[in-house]
């Protein structure tokens, strides 16, 4: 089993907006969060694309990537991910080709086939509701647009061509796992919000993986929710922020990040509690020893090559300190 010392730690950011705060303040906090991760040696900092979600400020993903990359030094910055049905592949190739040209060797392009929104918003973003069915073809088109010039295709991405921005496939189902295996691409499982199929998806990806020009063996990055604190009891308290937001999500309410509460009792029904617990079932929560144990368990059970954490704590200093805790665990 690989040691945690050898496994890269990365971050997935939704730019969560605290109740009563502004987008501007949120993005300033998000930048300082990324800079702290950069100083601590985290591997990647990815923004997730979401639309029409009051409480989440990461809709303009490529804009935020450029903003963070310009203010950091070493950390890779990217999309986790771009929801491809919302965008023409040519536009994505031009945006990420531009980013790669500005920040060589530091840009990642994660791709998903979900809309990153509800059906009404999806229609507002994209009039063709069958675009998701074309996901494999559009991944191929992006690979062509970002790769070296081949043949005499009339459509070329400038910037973009021959930037060879690394492409990752993201998913929470067997579809993306199978496609990533077939194409020989690295795979990210979205365990931070849809953990149900994690074992099946990772096993399928590893079993069916076909080596490619970009990857000679399977590479699995696992998304997990993180709540790291000095003690297990403090982490349990801080975790109520995420639980309140998932509860708001299943109720169709706005997703403002709320302060932690002493108890969730009286805030949810038994059925809602079960749903929230399932949603967060891969959560890595606790003090340093508990965090280390849970991460080692996931590595042993799934053969994880890299972790990417969501870290949605209400208090910015607690959020930054969670990264300190992770960095200390990794260096032990």
From TrEMBL:
Residue span(s) of domain Luciferase-like? 20-305
The record's annotation in Pfam families points to: Bac_luciferase
InterPro entries found in the cross-reference section: Bact_Lucif_Oxidored (IPR050766), CmoO-like (IPR019949), Luciferase-like_dom (IPR011251), Luciferase-like_sf (IPR036661)
Q: Which SUPFAM superfamilies match?
A: Bacterial luciferase-like
Recorded GO molecular functions are: oxidoreductase activity, acting on paired donors, with incorporation or reduction of molecular oxygen
Q: Name one GO cellular component term.
A: cytosol
Q: Which residues form a coiled coil?
A: none
Lineage, top-rank taxon, reads Bacteria
- Family the UniProt entry places it in: To bacterial alkanal monooxygenase alpha and beta chains.
Query: Entry's PANTHER family?
Result: LUCIFERASE-LIKE MONOOXYGENASE (PTHR30137:SF6)
Q: What is this protein called?
A: Luciferase-like monooxygenase
